[in-house]
Amino acid sequence: MNDIITVTCIGIGATAVMDIWLVFLKRLGVQTLNFGFIGRWIGHLLRGRFSHEAIAKAEAIPGELALGWFTHYAIGVAFAALLVGLAGVDWAASPTPLPALLLGMGTVAAPLLVMQPAMGAGFFASKTPTPLKNCLRSLANHSVFGLGLFLAAVLLGWATR
User: CA–CA separation, 111 vs 94, rounded Å?
Assistant: First the structure.
């Protein structure tokens, strides 16, 4: 049970670090994630529809923004569980940055290969006006998530000593 709490705290913490980064980018005028669209996609997925030509044009789902935020944090916790599963429970007790950063960078595969194509943006954002820029932005965001995994584990270790 303690491991589940540890993983959950690391995942929530890392996702919060990513969200702080996204708020910073938004204040600089950079377009960031629309969690309502994630919720809309999940809502349609639960109704049996996986892909859309353009998620922005798909029928709205009641509570899609809340569903999007919940999904965002649930995915963060799942990726934290993957990290602890791969690096070991000992990593959570004595975290080092490299496994967290590598896993964080690897998580960029989820949006580039699954979510964006399913939402109508194409593989590697190929159907957007600036695919390379969007891919690099996703990689930066997920690298920040990886940093967040490390920072959350360090903070959790400090708080529980």
Answer: 29
